[in-house]
Prior knowledge:
The protein has 394 residues and is α+β, with helices and mostly antiparallel strands. It contains 13 helices and 13 strands. Keywords: DNA recombination, DNA-binding, Transposition.
Amino acid sequence: MTELVGCARWAWNKGLDRCLKLLDSGERIPGQTAITYWVKEFRDNPEHAFLKTSYTDNLQQKLRDLSLAWQRYFDPKLEASRPVFKKKHVDSDNSIRFVNFSKYCKIDNRRVKLPGGLGWCRFRKSRNIAGKIKNCTITRNAGHWFISFQVEQKVEQLAHPSTREVGIDMGVAKFVTLSDGTSIKPLNIYRKYEQRLAKEQRRLAKKVKFSNNWRKQKQRITRLHSKIAHCRNDFLHKASTEISKNHAMIVIEDLRTKNMSRSAKGTIDAPGTNVKAKSGLNKSILDQGWYEFRRQLEYKQAWLGGDVLAVPAHHTSQTCPACDHVSPDNRKTQANFTCVQCGHQDNADRVAAINILARGRRVLACGESSLDDSMKQEPVLPREGLAPSAAIAA
């Protein structure tokens, strides 16, 4: 499996290098079908004799993934990152896919027969496989091998078991706050292992690069990163499942996490301010996994027959839900909200969630035009001396 994964990684890197050269010369990147034909050229080259031991479908699927990555990159709606070269010793980038499962593969309870010289392999069956298996993907992560099956099922249009709607405000002090007043505490799993991770990385820095002890230490760090990611993913799944199954309509903020976690270091000519505080805030923001939480909500609601609506997040915590008065003075502290016009008091995060839900209702009732007036308002700048976290929350 290591050999097959290595050949697939090589095909990705070779294909990416050719695509970059085409872009540099002013040419366009060919379509998906043309890119997959590069596999035959790679295998027929005498210099690439090691590819003879690879499985052709694995290479074609890897180039197909490369083509899809370029399509996402050129789609302005997705704001996807540019495809990058895959490293040999990064486990999360190493995977292979076997297509035409019914023709080339077999499954017998906890055993699966795979082509490419693998034969029968045992695996831990975490759940029953329902539906017709179309393909399977093998991934290596932190020294462990995982197999996942993609199945085809006939699913009727479902009606969500709940009829409730909710607005969600996401933050750092509280992971999410619902418009009904309930909240979920953040896991902050990276903060829990941050000192241990720094200690292991200092040990790595003292070892001879690429030596056996260096590789062992690097594997320890990889396992620790994997543990952090798995804990965060488990937390997000539990939270998203609980919210999704109890609400048919979920309205969330359309957050730009990449912009919110941008460094405040600045340049030599224009150095930034509060760099250390902003760096700590960036760590806390990225530790929450807001994008992954949104992604999970969207596909789980699609399964259950519900819906997820993303609305602009501007002024949600500065707008009074009682009189619609907008002012930065409404939120003088991070936690408390007091309207300077009507005197309405509440928790600031709950106020934001209520405004998010109301904004979602207006979009459903009147379309995007309902937000045009509020979008044209002059931006409300944070007061002087406001902490970076409060400025972003505002």
